[in-house]
Amino acid sequence: MGQRLGWYCAERGAERVSPLPPGRALAFGAVGERRCLGVRRAGRWIVCPYGAVLEGEGVKDQCPRCAQLDRSRSVAADTMADDPRPYGVYLAYFGPGLVKVGITAAERGAARLVEQGAVAYAWLGRGPLMAARRAEALLGSALGVPDRFAKEAKRAARGALPPVPERVAEVGELHRVARGLAGWPETLEPVAFACVDHTELFGLARIPPVGEVAELGGLTAGAEIVGEVVAGVGADVYLRLRLRSGGGGGSGAGGARGASAEGGAGGAVAVLDARLLSGWVLGAARGRVTTAPVRWPVAGDDERGAEQEGLF
């Protein structure tokens, strides 16, 4: 269940996946224009009939019209109330105070938890879709448990995670309180508490503290990414980049923190939301260094950091 990149060739209707294990070298560049992926139906992709071009900074891989069609038959958009499949209700832990409730088709197992980058999780119950939805709403209204967290909050929490026993205890306490709520759907079968931790699966111990991790921005035609996989959490890929010699100007606030043209063990680590790659044709890199935009942490800025001139 490790992290992978999915590939699709519209001309041949072919799909394949590439594993992204730690240590794997990546060297690719964006070619042409970023285009809408279309809609997935019955296990295959239907090409966007509009040939829509997408902007490079967004994580959405569909044009508005294809996205609207996709949501016309979607559990997330509440347009599949007649889905007969059993569903699981889960608690997903991303960091201290960051525990959400969600649902997923039981047949998918823990895949949804891995996709979201949940550090740990536990099942609450299993049953019909609408019963699962009622349980999700109950936790939101009675306990204030959210059903989502921002990407930035998840990333920040990874850099300062407490020991595993503390994570398990936080999820366990919420599980206990949730199961004791009045109004629990009768058709939802309760699941005994058992917490699963993803430390090893994601390689969390290899991720530097949040203040030492840069961020790769959206691609443009010709932009290249050259580096080595450090870890993978949900859609986030952590890469040790190869950068231009002297890029960023030293180790001060916003600097490159010792990155060199050869990368190697001392290279800077940056996180890439792999959804930014969706819709691009990726070809082999022509150069030996990363030319895609890199955003470095700046002292006193707890959120996004600032782009540094001369790194692109």
Gist of the model:
The chain is α+β, with helices and mostly antiparallel strands and 312 residues long.
Structural features, described:
There is one protein chain. This protein has helices spanning 64-71, 111-116, 129-143, 151-158, 164-179, 199-202; strands at 4-9, 14-19, 25-31, 39-41, 44-46, 87-95, 98-105, 120-127, 189-190, 196-197, 213-216, 224-233, 236-241, 269-273, 281-284, 294-296, 306-307. It is an alpha+beta fold. Strand 12 and strand 13 (236-241) form a beta hairpin. The longest helix is centred in the middle third of the chain and has 16 residues, at 164-179. The protein starts with a strand and ends in a 5-residue tail after the last strand. The model is unreliable at 247-266 and 301-312 (pLDDT under 50).
Fold topology:
Blueprint: E1 4-9, E2 14-19, E3 25-31, E4 39-41, E5 44-46, H1 64-71, E6 87-95, E7 98-105, H2 111-116, E8 120-127, H3 129-143, H4 151-158, H5 164-179, E9 189-190, E10 196-197, H6 199-202, E11 213-216, E12 224-233, E13 236-241, E14 269-273, E15 281-284, E16 294-296, E17 306-307
Parallel strand pairs: 11-14
Antiparallel strand pairs: 1-2, 3-12, 3-15, 4-5, 6-7, 6-8, 8-9, 8-10, 11-16, 12-13, 13-14, 16-17
